[in-house]
Every structure is written in structure tokens, then in C-alpha cells.
Specification:
20% of the residues lie in helices and 47% in strands. The chain has 4 helices and 12 strands; from the N terminus they run αβαββββββββββαβα. An 8-stranded antiparallel barrel has the order 1-4-5-7-8-9-11-12. The N terminus and C terminus are likely disordered.
Length: 207
């Protein structure tokens, strides 16, 4: 169970405090794959508002079997073995485009980091200088399945939009299709972990 939590922590940048634990060498995220899909209710609300979800390269746009849009991103980062800290960054990003007006809301430099039992996802919005908090994730709402070879985990759970995300949607399009705190995406992903010490040794052997 501890191994499952550690690996899932790496996927979403989650970190839980460990009372009295000493810091251990971090684990490196390897082959992180994250997919954000709009739930049916959210997809319908955005469709009715004329707003489409799109991917920002190198992220890719995919669809579910029922036609719901998803954004697939790769992830990298690290997490401490004692769960005191974790960080994950995603390649590319995603955006919403109003099909009639062409107005866009872009989220790039997507980063996830947390302590406690939840993580916060931040992003740069429309090339502004500072990131804002756009999504939150509660580990209690997650479903995780360990993958033995290579060591890792497959996981899924809801990502809820923040008040700042709702405000950004309202500013960009005149109204937000979702309310503050509503699930904006269902996230699914898989990640492998590699000890940084093992990785360094492997690098030396490959030279």
C-alpha cells in the first residue's frame, strides 16, 4: 500500500507529511502519462456554450469512445520516498476556444505540487507572468492500481476547478460553464518510478 501511494504521489505531485520521518533520496518520475478528460456533464455544458477543449503541443487531443475530448500530456518530476514533498510538470498544455468568436483561454506550464491529502495544479494563463491555481485533487477520491513490472501505478480521479479557474473562464468568455469547485476533468494516468541514486549509477555505466 505504501508503494502504491508513493507512485501515485509522483503522478500528481502529491506529498503527504510523515511525522518524525527524515528526508530520503527522491524518486524520479519515468514515463509519466497523464490524460485529462471532460466528464459528460462538463462536455455538454461546454458544447452548449460553444467552447471547445484543445491541446497545446506537445500535448495531444484524444477522444473517449463516447466522443468526449481529452488532453494527453507527458509528465516528469520527482517525489520523496517519505512523502514529504513532490513535484510534477506536464509537457504542453490545454486551451479552451470559443468557436464563434475565436476567443481563447490558454493554460501552459502546468505543474502539480502538494502536501497533506490533496494537491494543487497551477498553470500560466494566456502568457501572464505568474501562475494561478486552476485545479485541485483529493487523494481520498482517487482509485489506484499498482503495476508490478515495471514498478508503477495506474490511477484515476476527479480534478476540481478552482475559483481562479472559474474567474478566468468568465473573463475569457463572459460566463463560466462550470461553477467553482465542480469537477472539470477526470484524470487518468500511469507512471513509473526510478530511484535517483539508481539513475545516476545507470548513467555512469552507460558512459
Amino acid at each position: 500500500m505504501v508503494a502504491v501511494v508513493v507512485v501515485f504521489a509522483a503522478l500528481i505531485g502529491f506529498a503527504a507529511p510523515a511525522s518524525g520521518a527524515q528526508a530520503l533520496p527522491p524518486l524520479k518520475i519515468k514515463n509519466g502519462q497523464v490524460e485529462l478528460c471532460q466528464p459528460t456533464r462538463v462536455h455538454k455544458a461546454f458544447e452548449e456554450a460553444g467552447i471547445a477543449l484543445e491541446a497545446i503541443a506537445p500535448a495531444k487531443l484524444t477522444t473517449t469512445g463516447t466522443g468526449r475530448p481529452c488532453v494527453h500530456m507527458t509528465a516528469q518530476g520527482k517525489v520523496n520516498l517519505d512523502l514529504t514533498d513532490g513535484l510534477a510538470t506536464m509537457d504542453g498544455g490545454f486551451m479552451f476556444t470559443h468557436q464563434a468568436s475565436g476567443a481563447q483561454l490558454r493554460f501552459t506550464h502546468v505543474t502539480s505540487r502538494a502536501t497533506g491529502d490533496a494537491c494543487v495544479v497551477t498553470a500560466i494563463v494566456n502568457d501572464q507572468p505568474s501562475p494561478i491555481e486552476i485545479l485541485t485533487f483529493d487523494l481520498a477520491e482517487a482509485s489506484v492500481s499498482p503495476v508490478p513490472v515495471p514498478p508503477g501505478v495506474e490511477a484515476r480521479g476527479p480534478l476540481r476547478g478552482t475559483a481562479d479557474a472559474a474567474a478566468a473562464l468568465q473573463e475569457a468568455f463572459g460566463a463560466s460553464p462550470i461553477e467553482d469547485g465542480a469537477v472539470l476533468f477526470d484524470v487518468t494516468g500511469r507512471v513509473e518510478l526510478l530511484s535517483t541514486a539508481v539513475g545516476a549509477a545507470t548513467g555512469l555505466l552507460e558512459k
